[in-house]
Amino acid sequence: MNLLTVNSLTVRTEHQSGPINILDNLNFKIESGKSLGVVGESGCGKSMMAFTIMGLLPENMTASGEVLFGSNLLRLPEKELCQIRGNRMGMVFQEPMTALNPVLPIGFQVAESLRLHKSLSLHEAQNQASKVLDRVGLPAKNFSRSLYPHQLSGGQRQRVVIAIAIVCEPELIIADEPTTALDVTIQEQILALISELVLERNMALILITHDLGVVAENTDQMLVMYAGRIVERGPTQKVFRHLAHPYTRGLFASIPNSEKSLNEPSQQLEYSRKKRLSTIPGRVPEFWERSKGCSFADRCSRTQGKCSSLVPDEIQFDTGHYTTCFFPYEQNE
Ligand SMILES: Nc1ncnc2c1ncn2[C@@H]1O[C@H](COP(=O)(O)OP(=O)(O)OP(=O)(O)O)[C@@H](O)[C@H]1O
Ligand SMILES: [Mg+2]
To answer: Which of 20, 117, 225, 287 is the most buried (most CB within 10 A)?
Structure first.
């Protein structure tokens, strides 16, 4: 069953040069208990999409279309949105130090959400919060509930942020780059924890990341975003098998060792020394610089006449696998 359906979602703001679309006609769905990865270069609108779903758009922006989560969240008054945010939908932010309140103990911060949404007494909320902190790997015997965020490491702080996001047992959790501020080993632990919790509680997950490897390992479905649009989407395995959009291929080619599977670290180092990493030429255009046609046209090796003047419609290759390109790669190309 679809838990969240996004239809024709467009987010618009005023710029000196006139109105511009920060997000442009996004369409996708996520089912209960499933995970959706969102990838794309910096500035392509991933966080803006998350903020729009959570009803946290900056004041200078307006959203149109539908974000159906029971009802259309774009039409809900703020009071009703507050009952959904943090309760039926949880969010894990990139930087735990800014997501946590530095002057409140961790136990209090996790319990606060329960007090607000579930009307529990202070004692009940603290008990429940303590159990969730245990579950995310911060057992009470080692981590007093009266510790402050600065007394924890980055990875431990991110565990507190995850505890806050899940404490009310949301149906959907949005994790926006939950591990970029952490070192590689801690990243893996945090991603494993998120995956376990999602499975255990049958939550749906939107996982936003720069890292295609993270999407490959942790998600059922994926979206590839470029300059405020979705350029490819579908079941993660199908998208990786095909890589239909030239932008998706470019992202894939810029992963170290994506062309060869090398198991030994020494082989990998040797290979990295010999081969320069491919990069996608150029940069993501600013919103006011976008051409009339496909926004990737200036950087794409397959651009032909109409790419610069017309926006391609989304086409379906295979069940559930779509791309927005006039000249996508064929399966075996
Ligand atoms: N408050 C704002 N007012 C106007 N434009 C904004 C505002 N916040 C973001 N933007 C614009 O929206 C674009 C998309 O930003 P967003 O933060 O969603 O990118 P992102 O894909 O999450 O990037 P990153 O990977 O770096 O987190 C930015 O390039 C910026 O131009
Ligand atoms: Mg972001």
So the answer is: 225
DSSP-assigned letter for residue 311: P
CB 106 within 8 A of CB 132: no
**Assessment of whether the complete model's pTM goes beyond 0.85:** yes
For atom 6 of ligand 1, the residue with the nearest CA is: 22
How many residues does this entry show for the chain?
333
Cα–Cα dist 42/290, whole Å: 16
CA of 142 to the centre of ligand 2 (A): 33
Confidence category of residue 262, pLDDT binned at 50, 70, 90: very low
**Pocket residues: Cβ below 6 A from ligand 1:** 13, 22, 40, 42-48, 58, 60, 287
The bridge status of strand 221-226 relative to strand 35-39 is parallel
- The protein residue whose alpha carbon is closest to atom 30 in ligand 1 is 43
**What pLDDT, on the 0 to 100 scale, is given for residue 333?**
79
Averaged pLDDT, 105-129: 93
